[in-house]
From TrEMBL:
Name of the protein: Ribosome-binding ATPase YchF
Required co-factors: Mg(2+)
InterPro entries linked to this entry: ATPase_YchF/OLA1 (IPR004396), Beta-grasp_dom_sf (IPR012675), G_OBG (IPR031167), GTP-bd (IPR006073), P-loop_NTPase (IPR027417), TGS (IPR004095), TGS-like (IPR012676), TGS-like_dom_sf (IPR023192)
Function, as annotated: ATPase that binds to both the 70S ribosome and the 50S ribosomal subunit in a nucleotide-independent manner.
Amino-acid biosynthesis found in the keyword field: no
Native species: Paenibacillus cellulosilyticus
Keywords, comma-separated and alphabetical: ATP-binding, Magnesium, Metal-binding, Nucleotide-binding
């Protein structure tokens, strides 16, 4: 399953945010693929389209799609040199697909800051430096190996060394690996290095309860936004404390609490949506009377692979798919109406699934 790692310095609010995530609680029976681990929380992806499809089809049940958040505690200055539980945590980051970097933007005299004062830019740089140092280590080791292999006259290694040198230069200049422009082929050459700074990042700016509704008045959030803009990264202001309170509520109570705070959507929902986007994911739907359900695919997946997300048998025995786009279906008002308008398409093995497709698969068993 796809996952997002939560990183940040100690005492910035990671555990509080992670607790909110696990409190919000996905129905785990629906997601058998998810890991059972105290450091992993499964989140359901809020999606307006699923609500609309449920109204349209009136199924027995509705199941959102989900992905995992991993709590990666313990990253401190010096981690890349084995400080704290350094190496273990860096290894955990290696396994996630994207990073949510929590930054402390709240002031509270009672909560110690590891660097002595609230300093979001300094904090971001401390973490990023550890990730960069770990990557330098990986790249240096790989360059040595590839140089040796190059002596055999294999062209692939020459190209590999060239790519690694470019990455090395960026890293030595404090730039993340993702800032280096690479072709798809070049990316493939170094994929198995699992560079930490190659992973997409979003910054979660943790603000005080009282600032939840107008977080952009917080001067620290502005600083984080300016930094992130240079990297082209997304910032999600959030109050981890508020989220942990919201997560204990449901339905009406939740709506009322959000209204009192002057919010239209919980910060957690905004964070989940932003992380989903960061992972480069698409959603398609199945809409039967038994179940209306959202499924996650990577951009560019073809119909059989997308079917395989439901069950490997669907991929193996794939014959074709009946497809209608979400917009067409909603405009038509029902599956039959869409069919009459000729909006229900038959697609084959080469069809690239689009975000919002409503699919029905035909397959051999
Ligand atoms: P972690 O070390 O990054 O996991 O940080 P924690 O989530 O354990 O939070 C450290 C302390 O900061 C705890 O006492 C939290 O209650 C507190 N804290 C977290 N978020 C906020 C916040 O938005 N405002 C205030 N005042 N305290 C917070």
């Amino acid at each position: 399953a796809l996952s997002c790692g939560i990183v940040g310095l100690p005492n910035v609010g990671k555990s509080t945010l992670f607790n909110a995530i696990t409190q919000a609680g996905a129905e785990s029976a629906n997601y058998p693929f998810c890991t059972i681990d105290p450091n992993v929380g499964v989140v359901e992806v809020p999606d307006e389209r699923l609500v609309k499809l449920t109204e349209l089809v009136v199924p027995n049940r509705t199941v959102p799609t989900a992905f995992e958040f991993v709590d990666i505690a313990g990253l401190v200055a010096g981690a890349s040199k084995g400080e704290g539980l350094g190496n273990k945590f860096l290894a955990n980051i290696r396994e996630v697909d994207a990073i949510v970097h929590v930054v402390r933007c709240f002031v509270d005299e009672n909560i110690t800051h590891v660097a002595g004062k609230v300093d979001p830019l300094g904090d971001i740089q401390t973490i990023n430096l550890e990730l960069i140092l770990a990557d330098i280590d990986s790249v240096d080791r790989r360059i040595d190996r590839s140089r040796k292999n190059m002596k055999g006259g294999n062209k692939q290694y020459a190209q590999e060394v060239e790519v690694l040198e470019r990455l090395k230069e960026a890293l030595y200049n404090d730039q993340p690996a993702r800032s280096v422009e690479l072709s798809d082929d070049e990316r493939l050459l170094i994929r198995d290095l699992h560079l930490l700074t190659m992973k997409p990042v979003l910054y979660a700016a943790n603000v005080n309860e009282t600032e939840a509704a107008n977080s952009d008045d917080n001067p620290y959030v502005k600083i984080v936004r300016e930094f992130a803009a240079e990297e082209g990264a997304v910032v999600v202001p959030i109050s981890a404390k508020v989220e942990s309170e919201i997560a204990e509520l449901e339905g009406e109570d939740k709506a009322m609490f959000l209204e009192e705070l002057g919010l239209t959507q919980s910060g957690l929902d905004r964070l989940i949506n932003a992380a989903y986007k960061l992972l480069g994911l698409y959603t398609y739907f199945t809409a039967g009377v038994q179940e209306v359900r959202a499924w996650t695919i990577r951009k560019g997946m073809k119909a059989p692979q997308a079917a395989g997300v439901i069950h490997t048998d669907f991929e193996r025995g794939f014959i074709r798919a009946e497809v209608v786009s979400y917009d067409d279906l909603v405009a038509a008002g029902s599956m039959n109406a869409a069919k009459e308008k000729g909006q229900l398409r038959l697609e084959g093995k080469e069809y690239v699934v689009q975000d919002g497709d409503v699919m029905h698969f035909r397959f051999n068993v």
